[in-house]
Design brief:
Layout lengths: L3 E4 L2 E4 L4 E7 L9 E6 L6 E6 L6 E3 L7 E6 L4 E6 L8 E8 L12 E2 L5 E6 L1
Length: 125
C-alpha cells in the first residue's frame, strides 16, 4: 500500500502563495491519478483538483480554477499544489490521495484512497 505524506502548509495573508507537496513511497505512483482535497472546520472533505498519471491532464474545482496549479514529478514520486491569490475561504487541512483504478474519471472522496495525514493551510484576511 502506497504511503503519502503532505507538507508545505502554513499561515499566509490573503493574496499570498503557498506550495504544498505530497511525497509517495513507491515508483508505481506514476501509474495513478492523484488528487488534492481539503477539509475546513465543521465541513465535509471536498475535492480541490487532480492530475493524471502522466501529468498531461488536470481537473480543478471552480472555486480554485485559475489560482491553483497541480503538478507532479514522477521521478521524485512527488505531487505538488501551487496555490496563488489565496483567500480566507481557502483555509483548511489539505490532503492528497490516490484514485482507485476501479473508479476512472471520478473525483469523489469515496473513490480515492491512501490518504495522507494532511497539512494545515490558514489564510488571514
Amino acid at each position: 500500500q502506497v504511503q503519502l505524506v503532505e507538507s508545505g502548509g502554513g499561515l499566509v495573508q490573503a493574496g499570498g502563495s503557498l506550495r504544498l507537496s505530497c511525497a509517495a513511497s513507491e515508483r508505481t505512483f506514476s501509474d495513478y491519478t492523484m488528487g488534492w482535497f481539503r477539509q475546513a472546520p465543521g465541513k465535509e472533505r471536498e475535492f480541490v483538483g487532480a492530475i493524471s498519471g502522466t501529468g498531461r491532464s488536470t481537473k480543478y474545482v471552480d472555486a480554485v480554477k485559475g489560482r491553483f496549479t497541480i503538478s507532479r514529478d514522477n521521478a521524485k514520486n512527488t505531487l505538488y499544489l501551487q496555490m496563488n491569490s489565496l483567500k480566507p475561504e481557502d483555509t483548511a487541512v489539505y490532503y492528497c490521495a490516490v484514485r482507485r483504478r476501479g473508479a476512472p474519471g471520478s473525483y469523489l472522496v469515496a473513490d480515492f484512497t491512501s490518504w495522507g495525514q494532511g497539512t494545515q493551510v490558514t489564510v488571514s484576511s
